[in-house]
Amino acid sequence: MCLVRILLAFVLTACPLAGFAQTGGDVYVEGRVSNSEGKALLNVTCKLLDKRDSLLAYSFTDKNGEYRIKRCAGAASIMFSRVGYKSETVRLKNGSSGYDATLYDRDLQLNNVTVTADAITRKKDTLMYNVDAFRQKGDVYIEDVLKRMPGIDVDESGRITYQGKAINKLNIEGLDLMGNRYNQATRNMPAEAVAQVQVMENNQPIKARQGKVNNDRATLNLKLKKNYRVKPFGEVSDSIGFDPTLWDNRATAISIAGNNQLLADGAMNNCGIGLGQLAVDMNTLEDAYTYEPEPKSFLYSPTYHVPPMSQRYYLDNKSSFAGLNFLHAFTKSSVLRVNALYYADTTVGEDSVFSRYVADDTVSIFENNRITDSRNTAKMSLAYELNTKKVYLSDRLTGSITWRDAANNNTTNIGKVEEFIYQKPRGLQNILTAELNTPSRLYSLSSVFRLYDNAESLSVVFGGDGSDSRMLKLKSTFMRNRVATVFDLFGNSLTLGYIMEHKHNNVAGTQSGHSSVSGYWIHTAEPMYEINFSGGSAEISLPVEYISCRYSWRDGRTARFMFSPHADASLKIGNLLTADVAVAYNQAADTDNPLTDGVVANNYRTYTKYPDSISVERTSLANLRLSYFDASSMFSCNVYAGWTHVRRDYYMKYLYAGDYTFATPEWHDNSRSSWSLVASLKKIYTRAGLSVDASCSYSYNKALASQNGIEDYLRYNAMNASLTTGWDKLSWINLSVTCAGNVSWKRHDCFSESGDLLKNVYYTVRMDVYPVSNVHAYSDFSQTTFEVSHGHYSTNCFWNAGVIYDVLKSLSLSVSAVNLLDRRVYEEAFYTGVNYQYYRTPLRGREMMVSVRLKF
After folding, report:
1. CA within 20 to 30 Å of 451's CA: 234, 249, 473, 560, which one?
2. Between these two residues, 587 and 748, which has the higher pLDDT value?
3. How far apart are CA 112 and CA 258, in angstroms?
4. pLDDT in tens, 13-26
5. Is residue 510 part of a domain?
6. What are the φ and ψ backbone dihedral angles of 395, each rounded to 5 degrees?
7. Cα separation of 498 and 482, whole Å?
8. What is the pTM of this model?
9. What share of the chain is helix, strand, coil (3-state, %, to 5)?
10. Minimal CA–CA distance to 274: which of 322, 310, 323?
11. Is residue 154 part of a domain?
12. Which domain range does residue 37 map to?
């Protein structure tokens, strides 16, 4: 308990406004709320207010109509409210703690008065967001609405976080149809079909673990409206355009009925809308012991960049996607799920790049790339899950294959270069998880087994000076097995676990002329103790690892022990504030990517000698996260502060020349450190129709750089701030404004004399107008200004507009225009470590499309 008290003291010191002094123990106000007939009322909102009616704390009544709120300093009254009833306010008296209330029915027969459900209600640990309360007229899919809900954030890939933490999973009507690719659902599910978004806080989705293994993350559930649960629904849309010929076709079919769920979607376009994010897995908490990243490819393009703007402006593509997701529930606890997808994409990327590599003899390189990149990906998974209070069993078999061809016609400072890359990664993986819950113990088993191979080839033709070709083949076998038991010790849960991990890699095709074969075994003993106390919980873990490695190019084995203690705590401070604190010292072997004995050609000018033995990273870290969420006032705020220090066994030395780049490991202590501060808030002013979403961040990084014989530590800084406001008070117009700015700089070092300060600023303004009920007109304007060199700026402006006409409830027509200002070129400059890069890429230009959308 000493550790718990220390962590609690630290958080309370960091948040002096969260608490207040009392001479005695905690004081509560409590009571019972009933209707005019004396019957208990459930889910009555009970707000503790000060003299200015500012909210201090809140609670909800239970099924017995009872509530309990911790009394705060300055509390003057308590207000009771529930939809369909008149609100009641009771003044607090000194020395009194019991306050009952009676709510009377609101007169619902008044003309022109509509009583709607509360935007957010609570039932125990579940928050229920009323979708219609957050949905705006222009919202099409449920992801559009999720982005506006306080406490919930959605990033560009579709990954959802609640209170700053990734969610466990996203269910539809209580069932996990999508697995770890739930963005397919959020980006295809019509917003009008969803009645509620239910957020189950601190939810343990594995029932056998409930009460024995804590979980501080949330599970989301989409609750559909009744008429969408009785028949299939979806949409078909088709868009065509010109300058040049454009198309954008989409189709979605969804059936959520009884024991069967189906979501099938397809899309194809050439108008700059990338579909690759739909094929990306959203890693979930269930993957903690079974997730292992696939090895990185050896071959890559050295220069092609992705501009920081909407793909609609620059992506020259032909993309298609098809997904099929089916779930059958044998019982409420037993389901079978099939998920399959196919993704095809061909893009043409062009850019002009100038790179300056700083050293005693500074090297400057220019390249003019035209890359045609084609890839096809197919993935399929079959999963069975049995989830009961006593037994949990899950088995998921997944297979994937990708074909990639890339051709680059490059004009460089050494002449014309033609570069051809072919890659074919394939993988087959099975994940098994089992839990057995007995009255005294929980027994756990998790196992992952994967076969993976990747064939890569590189062919380079130098203008008039011959050609070169290389082929690399990687075959990898990986397995990780974990057994554990959880039992009660001194009133809290103790977990004793053992993990056995093995990987075998075979790399053929390096310049050493022979195969590089390597493998390792890791044995881990993992004791972990969870401490539950009033207002929170803490976890202490003391894993010890033993790793043994063998290499074909070296006799004998290398072995070492690693110790990685960590402690974290989650504390509830009052009703609205949660603090999470973590401190750790991790020793981890770098086992993600294969080792080689020899030099690998990565592209036409880059050669790398990869590490030939396992390295170990020693990471010290400490972080604090504060999450404040007041559902009654629609306000959420997150603050994160983190510090990290990493020591590694080696660093990479780079040699830049006019015609090649060579990287080699230097086995010597290498340390880097960083700390960051991030704050974000989201607030909705319901009466004013105003929403605010703001964030700011600062980061500092210190890292070693070694190139062309010069070594020094780089100390670089970055600051970012953004603000988005929306106004929808009037039914016929919505306005939103976003502005953001970035500043980056670094301190003087051996590579430069100045601070290399670069700035950029961005803003966008959008207006949606509804002149009549079935017409929606919109227009948005954005401007980005980048500092490409000291005192010199590049400005890019974009203007888009469109009109949507709802012919029928199920049929709409639209006309849209993108890049009306016909912007044709984008420029940007930035520093990567000590080096400066400037690039220029063409844009798509002005485009117009006509669309028809049919819902069923």
Report:
1. 560
2. 587
3. 38
4. 333 333 333 334 57
5. yes
6. -135, 130
7. 6
8. 0.84
9. 5, 60, 30
10. 310
11. no
12. 27-103
